[in-house]
Specification:
Chain lengths: ~300, ~375
Amino acid sequence: MDKKSPKALLYLLPSLLFLGVFLVYPLIDVFVYSFEEGYNSASQTSFGTGLYNYSYVLHDPYFLQALKNTFILVIITVPLSTILSLVISLGLSSIKAVRNLFQTVYFLPYVTNTLAVGLVFMILFKPTAYSDGLVNLLINTFGGQSVDFISGPYWAKMFVLCFYTIWIVMPFKILILTSALASVNKDYYNAAKIDGTSKTRTFFRITLPMISPMIFYLVITGFIGAFKAYSDAVALFGTDLNTQGMNTIVGYVYDMLYGNSGGYPSYASAAAIILFAIVLTVTCINLIVSKKNVHY
Amino acid sequence: MKVTLENVTKKFPSRTKNSPDVIAVNKFDFEFPDGKLIALLGPSGCGKSTTLNLISGLLKATEGKVFFGDDDVTELAAEKRGVGLVFQNYALYPHLTVRQNILFPLQNLRGKDKMSKAEMNSKAEEIARLVQVDKLMERKPNELSGGQQQRVAIARALVKMPKVLLLDEPLSNLDARLRLQTREEIRRIQKETRITTVFVTHDQDEAMSISDMIVVMRDGVVQQTGLPQEVYDNPDNLFVAQFLGTPPISVFDGTVKDGSLYIGNDKVLDGVCADNANVTVGIRPEGYILKEDGALCCKLRTVEVMGRDISVVSSNDFAKSADIRSIISSENKVDTSKEYVRFNLRREKVFLFDKENGKRIRFCSEKGGVENNG
């Protein structure tokens, strides 16, 4: 069929319409708001246009804290969760007996309700009138001092947030990696075995390159997901993240719109555009790096 | 190095409790002679690939012993046996170049066998020249044709100078023309390296044309071993006779009566001193001589001209298949207007088999001596 036929366009129209209204238009809108000073969504008015919103956001200590938190979260959780998932998947694919049981266990967090997960973490970390939480009990048995993980020092809170994030993203990664490992043709391993290849060499020279597209996929989506983190922090530390010093960029955007100090769509838009720019840059770097290291 | 399999049996446990174990290879007892090209031949599911994997060490024998030369390698793991294996799908590492693929086994060498980079490279290039892929060294496997991939796979298997080279259905992924070419190539490479080579095939043509020896298998049991021509000329049983040869042997119900062989009412051969009994008669396509007053009368169906030869397709009420194909030289003229065609039979192309178990029944010559029982 002719590519320029109007009929083809007609078929595409429904999806184009939906994408345009709900995706493209808001995106452009956000971009416009971010340059409009003091935009008021009720009266649809603004004082003027310029870079003031960006300058405000970039000088806002809350935003800088959120930026720092997000970066720490990304840098720690993405590599760690990917490596851990890979190790667990390798383990899973080398056992036969209770493999299905383990696969189910590892996948449970994925299908568990977020609130239930939050409850589990409360039991683990939150101090109550009766105890300091399960983890502190453990620390105490080994003779350590209790640490307040929920409203205590920054590193403790960060640890809980990272722990939670890693735990919550791993099931999906394990699922993907186990199937990727299973799809590698056994003949490659047999060929390597015949040639007397050591286990480590087989892993780094055969297994890893073979599943590299999947790892790359997980890293990219992992980066994007971690940059967009918000609900996890809320589940752990409540909605007042700024006072806790545990806000994330998305959390900052939300607070600027609807939070207690909210009602500033312009600042929110500017922060959102900054996040967009960061994610875009990181993804581009990922793509460039992967071109050299990902096979096929 | 010669490879000996001594009463090797491989059982696979059944999946359910009540079904019996699967015996893939049953009491395989054979010595693969040194420096020869040997074909393991049989229909699919006959255990030939399993046998190959037992030699490679990827599978462990349930019973019996495997020897390389005089060394018992039965308990030795695959990586310590020093074999080269070419997989049916080649199993070339797709992310490595041809050069890296060929270098791969060399880079695994440790201890006293460890080579320097330069040594490895020259070795890889030498092998690449042997299999004629030396101009493709920097390409990835998916940029190669099937035949080229096949050669690279052979090069990878050969580069560490294995004691035994094993090829699993090496030609099955190639098209017809390439198959002919590659099998000659395998023959040449084997002759140049003089490495004992075992290859698995279900194609009797392939096995007959290039191997020094063939081993015919069925249901895990070795049926017959020997030189290709010998096995063809002198099959031990009906299965081997039917499996070898294109067009296939034609099979009839026959009777031996008073020293003569009858197919229906046609007395086709004299001097058959088997016991008076019903037998199965196999006649090779080239065993027919066209003759107007020939002994065997068949209903003429068509005549196919194939250049040098002509193939007469006929039928007979006592034949076990609908068509009987006989190959006769094209100097003969077949009158296609006639309804019947008559043949005399070449004695050495006619085999008798037991009706019950398919075993060969030798017939003796007119003089009473046993004729040609190999």
